[in-house]
Amino acid sequence: MSLHPDYLSSFWKMQGLLLRVDGPLPCPWRHYIAIMALLTTGEHSWSLAELIQAVVLLTHYHSLASFVFGCGILPEGDPEGNPSLQVPSPPSGQSSPPNGDPLGSSGGFDAVREVEALMERMKVLQECQLQEEVASQEEMENRFELEKSESLFPYTGSALTFLASSVGDILELTPSPDVLCFVEDPTFGYEDFTRRGTQAPPTFRAQDYTWEDHGYSLIQRLYPEGGQLLDEKFQVVYTLTYNTIAMHSGVDTSMLRRAIWNYIHCVFGIRYDDYDYGEVNQLLERSLKVYIKTVACYPEKTTKRMYNHFWRHFRHSEKVHVNLLLLEARMQAALLYALRAITRYMT
Question: What is the pTM of this model?
Fold first, then answer.
């Protein structure tokens, strides 16, 4: 995270608030919730303020797991955990990626060609936007449903060549014994929002319950310090840019960042009516989608190899930026579902 100092500052403020600053829940309880990440029920009911703080703690650590495993930071006992990519942190106060940030040993003609192809697709999409070529609502909804259905495992074909094994093998992996000793039900975990051959639950339309208009307001009422820092953290990572893509500088990356954020929300069944999901298909190659889905939904099954092999032609700091977007988009998605449920309970 130190590769992105503006975000790291915001993250540490949120981390400190959750675990150290006075709040509705006692500090030992907060640490316990952070370790277990499961809501429990008992004879002593929580106040809404306690529930909100617990939900923020749970989503904070669930999403942080995606960042840690997504960056290949694995337990020492894990055979994949031997660090093979050591990149120095930027000097204190530096607000852009270090000049020495490497593109890695996989550079060359193919890497340059992939970057140029992405730049060209971004240019074409920007020109279409300038010409106000807008698809119909029906077409945009169809494109969302297509992206959602294509996110289902297993994938097949060349998209998996960056993995050491098929996605099916990944899904069969179980956590290490060091982790399993804390797990009561090893089969409990993420399930695809839409599974093949089953009735799909209703899509979460972002416009019906937004962070800006609904989620933030609820947290501000019951946990105001948390609401302010959460909003700051979401804004920092969503707008974070150094206007670079691999070897190019002076690039508007907003379109690419928005595609990554919205695809993560798509995986969790959240749809933005005013967003054309055709952009996701244009800007995110299949191997990147597989990486995002694995890190967002199965972080404990992510390996160092997977981190090393996605976007091999991009800088280390840019890959970490993808994982920061993963962390915050996953957290916001979880909060939206939880806060919408709490709002319904209150009304």
Answer: 0.78
